[in-house]
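Inverse folding, one chain.
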């Protein structure tokens, strides 16, 4: 029957080297046997060395993308990635409230891999105050969780406190990605669910620079698993395992911060 095949959507920027952003999302969707749909918000000219130039799309065009998809497809789950300014975030929120695109996973892209902040104060405020409250799952990394809650995470109890604060912003379920650094043998992610259940997922630290697109892949995998009928806890667990395999089984593409391996 028409539109019975699982369809998922990413709302994000295009990374021309294919390692992150919309391209990483679409690669992940393909690997999970779901049909990927995309709403493009920005275009990035960059490579494994860094970003050289970026261009935002016009609001009218983004609005039309939403209408075009809603008029034809049945999206079961959606994720957001890089949303570069407050006008785009407001437009995305308005359309997510207007159309039914299934459960929402928000990847709060705040920092570059080098630790540089991507958002202006207005954009950060919009992300925190109007987008995250719509999230069925929010997936900040360690540093983004600290910025969103203004808490320095030093121990496990701090992760729990940050998880509750992110829930207080309106997100139903929270996964905080643990710190990836060579001083630790194991990376631990903290998950707090809507029903107050909490658990940890861990994997061995992988000493590699082939890490571009990790956050995109995790959130896209959660979306794909939700669309295939998995509950939130199972979707997060499967996505965690898949992303670790993508990091562990690296491919030699690019010279510096290369992509992870979506064939893993």
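Residues assigned per position:
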């Amino acid at each position: 029957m028409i539109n019975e095949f699982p369809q998922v959507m990413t709302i994000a920027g295009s990374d021309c080297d294919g390692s992150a952003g919309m391209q990483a999302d679409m690669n992940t969707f393909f690997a999970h046997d779901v049909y990927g749909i995309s709403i493009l918000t920005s275009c990035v000219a960059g490579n494994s060395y860094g970003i050289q130039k970026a261009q935002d799309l016009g609001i009218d065009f983004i609005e039309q993308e939403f209408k075009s998809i809603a008029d034809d497809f049945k999206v079961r789950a959606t994720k957001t990635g890089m949303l570069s300014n407050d006008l785009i975030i407001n437009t995305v929120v308005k359309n997510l409230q207007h159309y039914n695109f299934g459960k929402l996973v928000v990847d709060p892209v705040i920092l570059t891999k080098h630790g540089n902040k991507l958002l202006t104060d207005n954009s950060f405020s919009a992300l925190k105050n109007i987008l995250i409250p719509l999230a069925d799952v929010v997936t900040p990394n360690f540093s983004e969780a600290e910025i969103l809650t203004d808490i320095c995470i030093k121990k496990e109890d701090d992760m729990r406190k940050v998880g509750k604060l992110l829930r207080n912003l309106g997100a139903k379920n929270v996964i905080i990605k643990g710190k990836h650094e060579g001083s630790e043998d194991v990376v631990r992610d903290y998950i707090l669910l809507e029903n107050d259940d909490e658990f940890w997922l861990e994997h061995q630290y992988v000493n590699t620079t082939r890490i571009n697109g990790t956050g995109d892949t995790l959130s896209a995998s959660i979306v794909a698993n939700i669309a295939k009928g998995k509950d939130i806890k199972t979707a997060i667990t499967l996505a965690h395992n898949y992303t670790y395999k993508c990091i562990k089984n690296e491919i030699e593409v690019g010279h510096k911060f290369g992509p992870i391996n979506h064939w893993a």
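The mean pLDDT is 94. The radius of gyration is 17 Å.
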